[in-house]
Amino acid sequence: xxxxxxxxxxxxxxxxxxxxxxxxxxxxxxxxxxxxxxxxxxxxxxxxxxxxxxxxxxxxxxxxxxxxxxxxxx
Amino acid sequence: xxxxxxxxxxxxxxxxxxxxxxxxxxxxxxxxxxxxxxxxxxxxxxxxxxxxxxxxxxxxxxxxxxxxxxxxxxxxxxxxxxxxxxxxxxxxxxxxxxxxxxxxxxxxxxxxxxxxxxxxxxxxxxxxxxxxxxxxxxxxxxxxxxxxxxxxxxxxxxxxxxxxxxxxxxxxxxxxxxxxxxxxxxxxxxxxxxxxxxxxxxxxxxxxxxxxxxxxxxxxxxxxxxxxxxxxxxxxxxxxxxxxxxxxxxxxxxxxxxxxxxxxxxxxxxxxxxxxxxxxxxxxxxxxxxxxxxxxxxxxxxxxxxxxxxxxxxxxxxxxxxxxxxxxxxxxxxxxxxxxxxxxxxxxxxxxxxxxxxxxxxxxxxxxxxxxxxxxxxxxxxxxxxxxxxxxxxxxxxxxxxxxxxxxxxxxxxxxxxxxxxxxxxxxxxxxxxxxxxxxxxxxxxxxxxxxxxxxxxxxxxxxxxxxxxxxxxxxxxxxxxxxxxxxxxxxxxxxxxxxxxxxxxxxxxxxxxxxxxxxxxxxxxxxxxxxxxxxxxxxxxxxxxxxxxxxxx
Lengths: 74, 554
Prior knowledge:
The structure holds 2 protein chains of 2 kinds.
Chain A: H1 21-34, H2 39-57, H3 60-71
Chain B: E1 24-31, H1 35-46, E2 51-54, E3 68-70, H2 71-80, H3 83-89, E4 91-93, E5 95-100, E6 103-109, E7 121-123, H4 126-139, E8 143-145, E9 149-154, E10 160-166, E11 169-180, H5 187-191, E12 197-200, E13 205-211, E14 220-224, E15 233-238, E16 243-249, H6 256-260, H7 262-273, E17 280-287, E18 290-293, E19 298-299, E20 302-304, E21 310-311, H8 320-338, H9 346-372, H10 377-390, H11 394-399, H12 445-448, E22 453-459, H13 467-477, E23 483-489, E24 499-502, H14 507-511, E25 519-522, E26 528-532, H15 537-547
Parallel strand pairs in B: 1-2, 1-11, 2-8, 5-14, 11-20, 22-23, 23-24
Antiparallel strand pairs in B: 3-7, 4-7, 5-6, 9-10, 10-11, 12-18, 13-16, 13-17, 14-15, 15-16, 18-21, 19-20, 22-25, 25-26
């Protein structure tokens, strides 16, 4: 399965009224998780988060593509 | 005041109360002749209530202020009889474009589908709305009292007593109901000792209204970190009269007085325009904003609407637009209560529904503000990462948040809703604002709704509607709170005690999942109260009772 690049955030516990809501919910959760962390703590937090999500994905084809995309400069 | 606009001054008239022997009593007094106070007053007049509207000034807003009026507000203004003037003068737009540094990353269309009477947004300086609405209010016989400043309020039960200062002296008047629309600083809220809680954002913004000849299309343009204003955001909107609104983020440390000076403002604008075109500075203001609301919008006989009750950041155009929805929600309930057709409890649902709406507006405007003004280094890194990814990847474009533009609240959890007992596709669930659709002869569905309760009945052929159903239309019409029937048919035909409109494109049937026989009960504010797959008089009357709080024991 290729890397999903279309909007994919969703909440199985509630049907969103606005299409942007699940993504905004996630973004707020993410920024809140970093509140009160130092720069170093934030970097470590991000590292752990990436490792957790990478393991969840598991598929190296997908992960290889994600790593390539993240390295691209706009 | 801008050179493009001639500011009206309304005549102060000596209030009769000054010469009355006894304090005069009114059923409804509205304080504040801004867009929201005027909307409440107009709606009350349309519903037959006598209204006194007090305003401390004698003119419209100074400066363009509230600028973007969403489709839902235009529909409300249509119902109030002011929509055409606003559309004719305003700049309609649907497209928003977002730039990061020197390139475009995201573009949205507010009305991605055709077949709506009104556009996604209209930009119009607030003073025009106030001018049109004041004229409409005067035509309808609102007792408009300019230069009448409320200096004291006594009590929040019937009667509420107001002390009013005028150029001819002070008078008192009594009112059964007081609607407070006196703005963000709300003197009445303070006089009543009521709190409004939330947070102030540590940021400052400069608004410059500039008059110029420009060929930019009528779109909303938003820049994150543009070369001409590094590390900050800029927002551009077109207004009427060739006036452009440019909104520069300045940061918390900016000196508001110094930034207003033309020698500071003009170079910023020149840098943005990037050429030597001529322009004229019309109005400049430096502002901060707050996201906050009152704990309750109803305090006995006193009801707070608009900015007096809740305030949001400007990103998303959720200020005036939510205020119009407050007015829309309140007026019909007030009329039923005053007429003795609903218990006072119905006004608690104004609080219930509009507090929930305010919370949605606060959440979205706070999130937009957090995206536009990252509060920490890591927050900025994530923000910039989203913007970089957005250029190539759809998922990141959805995360770009330069303002989630005002959409009408869906009263999902309202106690006035009758929950569905049958399955329907689409978005028209109980509590939803009703979608528009084109009908025969240039009619629009939205104009068939509103004012009072309506029953929408979908039918392939009007003649095929069962006799027993047609007979029941008379019953609906003769309820104390009457329900008028609108039949949305695929083919023409006349039906007694109902208006027949042709859904010739099938758009209404599509948006409402309206197969033959489907029924919607519409509230006077054009929200869905209930819906069924087939007509059942008892269920309709029960839903009407529920939507007017007449279903519960006192």
